[in-house]
Amino acid sequence: TSSTIVSKSISKDGGRTSYRGLVKVEEGAHGVKSHVRCDALILDDNDSRSDTYPYMEINEQDARIGHEATVSKVGEDQLFYLMSRGLSEQQAMGMIVNGFIEPVTRTLPMEYAVEWSRLIELQMEGAVG
Questions:
Q1: Which residue, of 19, 28, 87, 125, is most buried by count of CB atoms within 10 Å of its CB?
Q2: 52 membership: H or E segment, kind and range
Q3: How many CA atoms lie within 13 A of 3 on its CB side?
Q4: Residue 129: pLDDT band by 50, 70, 90 thresholds?
Q5: Where are the alpha helices (DSSP H) in the chain?
């Protein structure tokens, strides 16, 4: 048995995101593999934050369990580069956010992925500047 858990979060305007997850492996569950990955993107410097609280309850010696977490901010150099290629600041921010969530959206049916991208665009309006 194996599992992969992927958590993606985006914070802006002082927003706070939290991941709380449980991976539980019972005794006798041989050959179990689980990997938890938490990625956070912070869009501003307004006290936005992301917290990760993984909980692992492992009762089997041969279980292979892993967890990783990353937190990143949109860099001025990223925005500058995209804007130097003709994008507005809002378009550049939207492109960065869509790139961040692309591993999730590519697994969705096309109509949901398109709708999700449109929602990101709407959220980015007025988010910069």
A1: 19
A2: strand 49-58
A3: 15
A4: very low
A5: 76-84, 89-105, 110-124
Tell me, yes or no, whether 85 and 52 share the same domain: no
Predicted structure pTM score: 0.80
Place of tokens 């990101």: 120
Token pair in block for residue 80 = 């500058």
Which domain range does residue 25 map to? 1-73
Domain end marker among 32, 55, 73: 73
Q: Are residues 9 and 49 in the same domain?
A: yes
| 121 and 101 part of one domain | yes
- 63 neighbors 25 (Cβ within 8 angstroms): yes
Token readout for 37 is 């990955």
